[in-house]
TrEMBL record, chain A:
Name this polypeptide is given: Sugar ABC transporter permease
GO biological process: transmembrane transport
Family designation: Belongs to the binding-protein-dependent transport system permease family.
Source organism per UniProt: Streptomyces tabacisoli
Ranges where the ABC transmembrane type-1 domain occurs: 84-298
Membrane association type: Multi-pass membrane protein
Gene3D superfamilies per the UniProt record, alphabetical: MetI-like (1.10.3720.10)
One GO location term (cellular component): plasma membrane
SUPFAM superfamilies (UniProt xref): MetI-like
Lineage, highest ranks first: Bacteria, Bacillati, Actinomycetota, Actinomycetes, Kitasatosporales
Statement: the UniProt record of this protein carries the keyword Transport: yes
From TrEMBL, chain B:
Official protein name in the record: Carbohydrate ABC transporter permease
Organism field: Streptomyces tabacisoli
Compartment list: Cell membrane
Region (Disordered): 1-35
Positions of transmembrane segments: 46-67, 106-130, 142-166, 178-198, 219-241, 280-298
């Protein structure tokens, strides 16, 4: 699998010509293959998406017709707010819940329990396995007829009849959030644990000697040290969840009755089930504007951290 | 979670009251504070174990269920309530996979596409990351931001127009389409990882090479690249895993002939009326194996790789 061999150590005869370029030109030349690829597969498609929103176009057919803002008003007068609301419910839920779980676990593992290194590795499993596998597994757990969740809850006497977790609007979103939480809390845990490990133990001991209780130590010693990591982790996870697709698509496909429809599933379904690429990209454009705000905030924060020297 | 939080906080308040008592002048002898610390340690141990056990149930029971189902016979799977400890263990679900030619084809496709994606991403990202790390020029910052931001644009939207582009070039249902579409998310990741790795290589080394008369290409290829090789392999493994795991691009841009394993599993097993759960769980385990193995090698790079392009 280690096919990622370093570039061949060739010393071509035209080696000398490299010396004639200024450093800046040489540096730009190095970025050229990457930039070409970027332009072709990311920038051009995204820009063309922004334009397509103003046209009526079928995904399967060539040709299109300019329709102005019609595609945008279709959404804004229709489902936009519902989709936005559901996207936000999913995004906030699938960000906060794994954060709390991941943080609790990071704090626990950071107390130096026996075998915490091993446990860290074990807990990573849900994060490491492919997203589709995560979806299959939880689809099976939530299965209405034979699922283990219903089985356990019935045995425990908590429910009387099988619940169709993914099949009814009232529980589908919750089920999707739980699934996504399971897949992402390990990442939160690792990141926060890395942050926690930079807090010197002596600080805790000193604070403890001075009579600070656990709560006070948490807020005065631990939190200031991990605040940076925590905010980045929360923001990144928020951005990712805001455009998350896989779990929702495999588990519910946006249903039942549109109750788990988010921007990602709506854009996808409109383009590939409805074949209406104009409407799909119009919604995508609105979605991208919202994301852009988040991305700018994110870039500002990393900038301030001086990461992009 | 709900059970840990109240417990911990009540313990914490207890400790706080205790520390209030300890702060009275007569009690601040070394002995009491040492005893208090020991008590503190015990309390935090209990809290820590409670958290680990509760979260452990949430985190690991599904994994157990994945294994248990994969090892069960179909008959026992469609029993309700399910047997929590399977009694009729079998490997037949795994042997059935090996005999399924279509699945083998998906597997081969996955291998090919993920490998080419990884190699392409690493090669391109090596030059770009090197440029970002070792040179200072106008526009560099904007380029870096563009690479970083590109990871955050909505994939579902990108996919819609990529589909149209590939369609007009006749590239749908080809390995090329899959590799290129995977590169949209693996290349930014690799650029940032490799920039971080080049940052750790001292500039003095490059200067020394230049004084010795090595050209800039030669410096990069014969001196820097070998030093960065472990990092390049790590970046390649990350790209491989991301390509291996992808679902949305693969399911849309390729048909049965060229599709990779993740969407292949959906089309093979998720039936409209009945799903072959034990076989699907066995197949899921098989898909996960290369990824888990890759991550065992990547332990050292884990945090760095996960945060590539975000935080250092």
């Amino acid at each position: 699998m280690s096919t990622a061999a370093p570039p061949r150590k060739v010393a071509p005869p035209r080696e000398r010509t490299g010396g004639r370029l200024s450093n800046g030109a040489f540096a730009l030349l190095l970025t050229a293959p990457g930039l070409a690829l970027f332009a072709a597969i990311i920038i051009y498609p995204l820009i063309s998406a922004l334009f397509t929103g103003f046209f009526k176009q079928d995904l399967r057919l060539p040709g299109r017709e300019f329709v102005g803002l019609e595609n945008f008003t279709y959404w804004l007068d229709g489902d936009f707010l519902t989709i936005l609301k559901q996207t936000l419910i999913f995004t906030v839920g699938a960000t906060i819940v794994p954060f709390v779980i991941g943080f609790a676990l990071a704090l626990a593992l950071n107390t130096g329990l026996k075998g915490s290194g091993f446990m860290r590795g074990l807990f990573l499993f849900p994060w490491v396995i492919p997203g589709v596998v995560v979806s299959f597994l939880w689809m099976w757990i939530f299965n209405a007829n034979y699922g283990v969740l219903n089985g356990v809850l019935m045995k425990a006497g908590l429910i009387e009849d099988s619940v169709s977790w993914l099949g009814q609007p009232g529980t589908a979103m919750l089920a999707v959030i739980i699934t996504k939480t399971w897949a992402s809390f390990p990442w939160m845990m690792v990141m926060l644990l890395a942050g926690l490990q930079t807090v010197p133990k002596e600080l805790h001991e000193a604070a403890s000697m001075d009579g600070a209780g656990s709560i006070r130590r948490f807020f005065n010693v631990t939190w200031p040290q991990v605040r940076g990591v925590a905010s980045i982790v929360l923001l990144l996870e928020f951005i990712w969840n805001f455009q998350h697709f896989d779990t929702i698509y495999v588990l519910t496909g946006g249903g039942p009755a549109g109750s788990t429809e988010t921007f990602a599933t709506a854009v996808y379904q409109t383009a590939f089930k409805g074949f209406d690429i104009g409407r799909a990209t119009a919604l995508g454009g609105l979605w991208m504007l919202l994301l852009l705000v988040l991305v700018v905030v994110y870039l500002r924060i990393t900038e301030r951290k001086g990461d992009a020297r | 979670m709900t059970t840990t939080t109240p417990m911990t906080s009540s313990q914490l308040t207890g400790t706080d009251q205790l520390s209030g008592a300890a702060r009275t002048p007569s009690a601040t002898t070394g002995q009491t504070s040492r005893r208090r610390i020991r008590k503190d340690v015990l309390r935090s141990r209990i809290a820590a174990w409670t958290a680990v056990v509760v979260i452990g149930c949430f985190g690991l029971l599904p994994v157990y269920w994945l294994l248990a189902t994969a090892l069960s016979t179909p008959e026992s799977t469609f029993q309700f309530p399910p047997k929590l400890i399977p009694t009729d263990l079998t490997l037949s679900n795994f042997t059935a996979l090996a005999e399924n030619d279509q699945l083998i084809k998906y597997l081969v496709n996955s291998m090919i596409v993920a490998t080419i994606t990884a190699v392409l991403s690493v090669v391109v990202a090596t030059y770009m990351g090197y440029s970002f790390s070792k040179f200072r020029y106008r526009g560099r910052r904007s380029l870096m931001h563009m690479v970083l931001a590109s990871q955050m644009f909505p994939q579902a939207l990108l996919l819609v127009t990529l589909y149209a582009v590939f369609s007009s070039f006749g590239l749908l249902n080809t390995y090329t389409a899959l590799v290129l579409s995977f590169t949209t998310f693996t290349m930014p990741l690799c650029v940032w990882m490799l920039k971080g790795i080049f940052d750790t290589i001292p500039d003095a080394l490059l200067e020394a090479a230049s004084i010795d008369g090595a050209s800039r290409w030669r410096t990069l290829h014969s001196i820097v690249a070998p030093l960065a090789a472990p990092g390049m392999i790590a970046a390649g493994l990350f790209a491989f895993v991301r390509g291996w795991n992808d679902f949305i691009f693969a399911v849309t841009l390729a048909d049965k002939e060229k599709q990779t394993l993740p969407p292949g599993l959906v089309s093979t097993y998720i039936g409209e009326f009945q799903t072959a759960w034990p076989e699907l769980m066995a197949a899921s385990l098989v898909v996960s194996v290369p990824v888990v193995v890759a991550f065992m090698f990547l332990q050292r790079y884990l945090v760095g790789g996960m945060t590539a392009g975000s935080v250092k």
